[in-house]
Design goal:
This protein is an alpha/beta fold. It has 14 helices and 16 strands. The radius of gyration is 21 Å and the shape is globular. 55% of the residues are buried. Bound molecules: zinc ion (ZN). Zinc ion binds next to loops.
C-alpha cells in the first residue's frame, strides 16, 4: 500500500478537503480520509502540496493535429481552409512519424494531468488508400504511443466513407476510407479483438460526422458499438454548412439523423454540438447522451459557441477535449465552457467550478466507469496542482483556483492507475517532452 497525504483534495463537491490521506494498492484507491494529518499511516506518506484532483479525461483528441500548432494560426480563413492545412499533414504521415508525433503529444497530455485520452482515429490506411499489410497498423500505433507514456487510451475507431454529403472521398481523404461500414466493422472487430481484457485500452467506435458517413451506413456503426457495449462518438453540427447539407439531403438535422439510427444514449458522445436546434438539445439531454465541448478548438476554428448550459440542464453529461491540440490544457477547456457562455449571454455564473471539474474528469464517456473520482474502489488517478506558482499564488484552496487560475503548467504530480507518471513536473518516462515534440513535429511536416 502506498499512502499519499494531499494538502488539499477535491473529492467531487463544491469545496476542497484538507490533509486527505489517500491509500493506494496496485491500481486502485483503497481508502480516502480527510483531516488525517495525525493519522499513523500519514507518517510515511508521500506529501502532495497544492490541490489534488482526479485524473483528467481528454475525451476528444486527434493527436497528429499537434503538428499544426502555430502553423495554422496565420492569415484569414474558416474551418474549411484549416482543414486543407490539416490534410497536408495527414497525407505525409507514416507509421513511424505518426508514432513519434502521437507519443510526444500524449506525453504533453500526461504532463497536463490527463490520464485517459479518447483518440478519434480516422487515419487508417496508406497514401491513396493503399492498405498496409496489417490494415490496423496505425490504430496499433496510437495504442503503442499511449502505452509508451503511461496514458490510458480509448481508441475510437472512426468510420469515414464520404468526402461530404453525396461526395466521394478524394485526395488525402482516401487514407480514411474503408469502402463501406461493413468493411469498417470487420476491420474494427480485428482491432478490438486484440485488446479484449486489456486494463489500459478500450476500443470504441466513431461516426466521423453525417458529412462523412451516409445515412444508410450509420446504423452499422451504431450496431457495432451496441454489440460490444463500446463507446460511440460523432462530430455533430460543428459547422452550419454540415446542418445545411444534412437537412437538404435527409430532411433532418445531424442529431435527428443519429437519433433515428439509434445512436443516442449514455454510451454516445456528441462532439462539439455547436449549432443545435431546441429539439436537438432535448434529444441529447433526454437520452442521457454526453456532449464533448472543445472550446479552445472551437475558438481557433471559428466554429461558434455551443449551448453547453442548455444541454446540461436538459440532462446531457458534459466532457471536454483538446481536439486539434491548439492548446493541451483541460483547465483552459473547463473555464472556456463557462467563459464562452458569459460572452454569449452577457451574464456570469452558468456553471460552478465543481461542475466544470466533473466535465474535465468524465472518464465514463470513454468507457472508464471506475476512473474520475478520488474514492475507495476507483482507479488510482491523482493529479496535483500547485498553489504557489505565479498564476495560482494567493488563490484559495478551492475548485475555483484549479479551474480559473491554474494552467496545465501548474500540474506537478500525476499518478495513473497507481503508477507515478509525473513527479515535480517531470515526466518519469520521457526526460525532455519539448524536444520530442520539436523533433516529431518537424518530421511530420517535412
Ligand atoms: Zn474532432
Amino acid at each position: 500500500v502506498i499512502s499519499y497525504l494531499c494538502e488539499h483534495a477535491w473529492l467531487g463537491f463544491g469545496s476542497c478537503e484538507s490533509d486527505v490521506l489517500v491509500q493506494v494498492r496496485d491500481d486502485r484507491i483503497v481508502s480516502v480520509r480527510p483531516d488525517a494529518a495525525g493519522h499513523p499511516d500519514a507518517a510515511g506518506a508521500v506529501q502532495l502540496r497544492g490541490i489534488t484532483v482526479p485524473g483528467l479525461a481528454n475525451a476528444h483528441s486527434h493527436a497528429f493535429h499537434r503538428a499544426l500548432r502555430g502553423h495554422t494560426q496565420t492569415g484569414r480563413g474558416t474551418f474549411w481552409t484549416w482543414r486543407e492545412q490539416m490534410y497536408r499533414v495527414a497525407e505525409r504521415l507514416d507509421p513511424d512519424t505518426l508514432f513519434a508525433l502521437a507519443r510526444a503529444t500524449y506525453a504533453e497530455m500526461v504532463l497536463a494531468g490527463i490520464t485517459s485520452v479518447g483518440e478519434f482515429h480516422y487515419l487508417h490506411h496508406g497514401p491513396a488508400g493503399r492498405r498496409y499489410n496489417d490494415p490496423n497498423v496505425l490504430g496499433h500505433t496510437m495504442v503503442d504511443a499511449a502505452r509508451s507514456v503511461g496514458l490510458r487510451i480509448t481508441l475510437l475507431d472512426t468510420c469515414y466513407l464520404a468526402g461530404g454529403v453525396g461526395d466521394e472521398l478524394a485526395g488525402p481523404q482516401l487514407r480514411f476510407g474503408d469502402g463501406d461500414a461493413t468493411a469498417w466493422a470487420a476491420r474494427a472487430d480485428a482491432l478490438a479483438d486484440v485488446y479484449t481484457g486489456a486494463s489500459d485500452v478500450v476500443v470504441g467506435a466513431a461516426v466521423h460526422s453525417v458529412r462523412a458517413v451516409p445515412a444508410d451506413q450509420v446504423p452499422v456503426v451504431v450496431g457495432w458499438a451496441a454489440g460490444r457495449g463500446a463507446p460511440l462518438h460523432a462530430h455533430v453540427s460543428e459547422q452550419t454548412a454540415e446542418n445545411d447539407a444534412c437537412l437538404a439531403a435527409y430532411g433532418r438535422t445531424p442529431t435527428q439523423l443519429l437519433a433515428d439510427a439509434g445512436a443516442l444514449g449514455p454510451r454516445f458522445t456528441a462532439v462539439h454540438a455547436t449549432h443545435l436546434s431546441a429539439q436537438d438539445v432535448s434529444a441529447l439531454g433526454s437520452t442521457g447522451s454526453c456532449v464533448c465541448m472543445c472550446p479552445s478548438t472551437e475558438r481557433d476554428l471559428a466554429d461558434g459557441i455551443g449551448p453547453a448550459r442548455a444541454l446540461a440542464s436538459a440532462g446531457a453529461a458534459l466532457s471536454l477535449g483538446s481536439d486539434s491540440q491548439a492548446v493541451v490544457d483541460l483547465f483552459e477547456e473547463a473555464r472556456g465552457v463557462e467563459l464562452d457562455e458569459r460572452l454569449a449571454t452577457r451574464a456570469r455564473g452558468h456553471f460552478n467550478a465543481g461542475e466544470l471539474l466533473l466535465a474535465a474528469t468524465n472518464h465514463a464517456s470513454l468507457g472508464w466507469a471506475d476512473a474520475g473520482r478520488i474514492a475507495a474502489g476507483a482507479l488510482a488517478d491523482l493529479v496535483t496542482v500547485r498553489l504557489d506558482s505565479t498564476r495560482t499564488a494567493g488563490a484559495p484552496a478551492s475548485p475555483e483556483a484549479v479551474v480559473f487560475a491554474a494552467t496545465a503548467a501548474d500540474v506537478t504530480h500525476v499518478v495513473a492507475a497507481g503508477r507515478v507518471l509525473v513527479r515535480d513536473g517531470d515526466h518519469q518516462l520521457i526526460p525532455d517532452v519539448g524536444r520530442e515534440l520539436a523533433t516529431a513535429v518537424a518530421a511530420a511536416r517535412g
